[in-house]
Amino acid sequence: MHKIRSKLESRRFPALVALSALLLAACGETDWDAKLDTVLQERTGSTEQYIEGLEAFLEEGPPIEHASEARFTLGWVYAETLHQYAEARRWFEELLESDPGGVWSEDARWMLDNMEKDDEELLEEIRRRAEELATSGEGTSGTPPPDLR
């Protein structure tokens, strides 16, 4: 419950999150949720500054679930913003190596498989998969899949 509340508060009150992180640090405790949220919200600077903030966060040695989210975000930025796929691949692979069954692992695998494909290629795969599901009856509840054409 704490994590859910913390996530909701961090999206509504970034200043409160930053203040909470400072207070916890003064008490000798680390609120990793607040720290990561603060880093993720720092999109006002350059992409390079955002990357530096995420890397600095990782250097602090956060718990695996927080580190995985930071690694996924780094991979995403390199893939989707900078189109530097080799660097994106490095971050996604590092995530999978350190947290192969974690919350972000399926998304990282998908990005590794698909980040260099163009929109038409991805859409064709979705159509093909929808047709496979429709003909096999798998994953349907009696309703036909939407027309993707």
Strand tally, please? Answer: 0
What letter string, H or E per element, gives the SSE order? HHHHHHHH
CATH topology of the largest domain: Serine Threonine Protein Phosphatase 5, Tetratricopeptide repeat
The level of helicity is over 70%
Which structural class is indicated by helix and strand composition?
A: mainly alpha
Question: What's the layout of helices and strands?
Answer:
Layout: H1 2-12, H2 14-26, H3 32-41, H4 47-59, H5 64-81, H6 85-98, H7 105-114, H8 119-136
Helix pairs in contact: 1-2, 1-3, 2-3, 3-4, 4-5, 5-6, 5-7, 6-7
What do you see in this structure?
This protein has 149 residues and is an all-alpha fold. The chain has 2 domains: 1-41; 43-140, Serine Threonine Protein Phosphatase 5, Tetratricopeptide repeat. It has helices at 2-12, 14-26, 32-41, 47-59, 64-81, 85-98, 105-114, 119-136. Helix 1 packs across helix 2 (14-26), helix 4 (47-59) runs antiparallel to helix 5 (64-81) and helix 5 (64-81) runs antiparallel to helix 6 (85-98). The longest helix is centred in the middle third of the chain and has 18 residues, at 64-81. The model is unreliable at 1-13 (pLDDT under 50).
